């Protein structure tokens, strides 16, 4: 009886079943690299920034899960519970892009103009 392991099944995977999302040939190294790049960018944001604190915590947690899976894609998909590994990779790339934009925008700096009275007051 031939039993396929998950890494072999990933190689044989023909489609993700999601329009426009192709099967990634080697997703875990790409995901690790993306998470490490995101952490590198986040280190350029001041430690007091709420965005950095949140994004860094989530990215470090996810990177730890990917590294602890020891190459098993199904373990990563189960641990992250965010769909297929290709979807997780897209989300990671989007976060990397956002981190670069946050550095460009300098979102941690105070507003140049004071907001109108009552603008940020809610119910």
From TrEMBL:
<protein>
    <recommendedName>
        <fullName>NADH dehydrogenase 1 alpha subcomplex subunit 5</fullName>
    </recommendedName>
</protein>
<keyword id="KW-0679">Respiratory chain</keyword>
<dbReference type="Pfam" id="PF04716">
    <property type="entry name" value="ETC_C1_NDUFA5"/>
</dbReference>
<keyword id="KW-0999">Mitochondrion inner membrane</keyword>
<keyword id="KW-0249">Electron transport</keyword>
<dbReference type="GO" id="GO:0022904">
    <property type="term" value="P:respiratory electron transport chain"/>
</dbReference>
<keyword id="KW-0472">Membrane</keyword>
<keyword id="KW-0813">Transport</keyword>
<keyword id="KW-0496">Mitochondrion</keyword>
<comment type="similarity">
    <text>Belongs to the complex I NDUFA5 subunit family.</text>
</comment>
<dbReference type="GO" id="GO:0005743">
    <property type="term" value="C:mitochondrial inner membrane"/>
</dbReference>
<dbReference type="InterPro" id="IPR006806">
    <property type="entry name" value="NDUFA5"/>
</dbReference>
């Amino acid at each position: 009886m031939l039993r396929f392991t998950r890494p072999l099944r990933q190689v044989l995977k023909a489609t993700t079943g999601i329009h426009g999302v192709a099967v990634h040939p080697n997703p875990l190294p790409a995901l690790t690299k993306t998470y490490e790049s995101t952490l590198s960018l986040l280190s350029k944001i001041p430690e007091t920034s709420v965005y950095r604190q949140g994004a860094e915590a989530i990215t470090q947690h996810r990177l730890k899960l990917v590294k602890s899976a020891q190459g098993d894609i199904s373990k990563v998909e189960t641990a992250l519970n965010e769909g297929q590994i290709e979807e997780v990779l897209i989300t990671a790339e989007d976060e990397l892009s956002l981190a670069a934009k946050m550095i460009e925008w300098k979102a941690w700096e105070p507003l140049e103009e004071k907001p109108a009275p009552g603008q940020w007051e809610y119910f």
